[in-house]
Amino acid sequence: MAVRAPTVAGQARRDQILEASARLFSERGYHATSMREIGEATGMLAGSLYAHIDGKEDLLFGIVQRAAGAFLDRVKAVRDSEASAEEKLRRAMRAHVEVVAGDLEAARVFHHEWRALTGRRRTEVRKLRRRYEGLWDEIVRELPGATDPKAARLLVLSAANWTYTWYRPDGPMSPQQVADRFTDLLLEGLRGGG
Amino acid sequence: MAVRAPTVAGQARRDQILEASARLFSERGYHATSMREIGEATGMLAGSLYAHIDGKEDLLFGIVQRAAGAFLDRVKAVRDSEASAEEKLRRAMRAHVEVVAGDLEAARVFHHEWRALTGRRRTEVRKLRRRYEGLWDEIVRELPGATDPKAARLLVLSAANWTYTWYRPDGPMSPQQVADRFTDLLLEGLRGGG
DNA sequence: CCTACCGATCGGTAGG
DNA sequence: CCTACCGATCGGTAGG
After folding, report:
1. Prediction pTM value
2. C-alpha–C-alpha distance, residues B158 and A96, integer Å
3. Looking at the complex, does the CB of residue B147 fall below 8 Å from at least one CB of chain A?
């Protein structure tokens, strides 16, 4: 039980540890990262980390939870907005790609290191992931002429979820450009009718 | 240096070890799997594995190489086939989803445990992955009216590559049905024109 | 946040 | 393929 009543400075230190962990977990993976490396990246010894956190898995859970919150908040706002179904799809795609681009390391940890979680934490994250898929499902179902919404949702989410593997902030396209290009292709098709 | 001139039985044993490793690596991840667990899954002690393999990373490399070969062979055949561009896209998507469905565990290891590889092996796998993307690029570029082939290829490959995360062989759709649905949606768009 | 340390487990090897 | 073992490293703790 660490940091019961977090001070301002204590919280900042914990954020710093989370950030360093996200970087290391995304680069090498959760199990390949040692507490000693996390300590080194934050300027202290491994043992000292336990004044700020409960354990290694606590770090992973914190990163994943934070990322899930970002995705959920942004897309929930889109779902609740007043706009056409196509416009909502466009906004949701923008939101997703922006969250990914805003913190690629956290996105990578969210999308595939979460599986290293165990017990309650794993169950909790699974719930958050399902909730996120549910939001996209609602948006896609609103599209006019959606004959197979489940397949459509899978296709749309595939495009969104895969971005963390290839998007580079120093590349030629902004997050919004990527999102808009994908949305156009998804709506109009590769045949380019429309 | 193990198995220089593999006997028939020796090769079968090595295959068995690879299969067990693929299952464990896909479930828990490469670094979270111990040689003792792999030994247990193949009915021997950890030390005895080294009569068949050179090291733990050797196992990961073997699994990834084999999976890469399956994807490459199948899609290369599609690219070289005589068919319209749209038909090639359909066949490539079928091939990919069939390979994924045919060995979900290997597909998972291929898609994301490969990052645990180091040095030459990592470089080699990167090369194979790029070659695979190149094949898809060729297929997508043949599509009539392909205004932005790079975005189109990314979208198509996102749909294909994400399947390993959600496809279940005991689910309602066959690999071919999944592939065809995706191909239809990709070509015609969510607006359902056509 | 450090010193000093714990038991457990890791990948791998020698010798048979 | 087993017995017996190696040094290294792991996550974490007690006490200050």
Report:
1. 0.93
2. 15
3. yes
